[in-house]
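User: For my dataset I need records formatted as: sequence, then structure tokens, nothing else. Please produce one.
Assistant:
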Amino acid sequence: MQIYWSKLIDVVNESPEVKTFVFECPEDYTWEEGSHIHLAFEGFNTGEKPDRSLIRHMSISTLKDENTIGITTRIRKDASKFKQILNELSIGDKAAIFKTHTNVPLKREGKNIYMLSSGVGLATFRPLVLDYLNDNDNVAKIHSLNIDSSKNYLFPDIFQSSADKNLTAHFVSTRDEYYEEAEKLTEDKDALFYVVGSDEFLKQNVDLLLKQGIPNHQIMLDKHESQKEQFFAN
């Protein structure tokens, strides 16, 4: 397993609680859209066992073409130890990056794609939408539905409706409105549905999609194959 120690080169305030931590991209480092990594801090591997409080799965919110590794996350006042350390990093400080993997690459099957997300989960979809905007080959259209009660919606420069690009973005602030809109989307029985959010959010969405007749293979979750079964169980 190769571990890259990458410098923090910028911090972008996306909203009052959400920041993107921008790390330098190692020369030989590559990834697909929709990838996540293990991000860890100094000392995580000094003992006999890894210190898991210093390691976290994080989605990469940038494309390889941007030549930076962006980590977009919510930082609350009662943040975990990991996020406290992340938030206190100074420009030039290093973090470890390893075990890159994607569960939600952009599928180019000529179908409509619906991206369902909650809050900062939208960061996982940012590179997929950018990849689509760069090359829309074999993707009919993309529609993003995101719920965020803060109303500080993320990436408005990317997630904006464009008829010319067959891209639509819909932000809602209540769960009732979200699930009402999500159910309408299931009228498209041949589409692909990507879902990103908390485990509870994933389960609720999968239940809705299955109830409306969307088959398992058309539902994409940001989970390893071994973890997906629990979300499709009754």
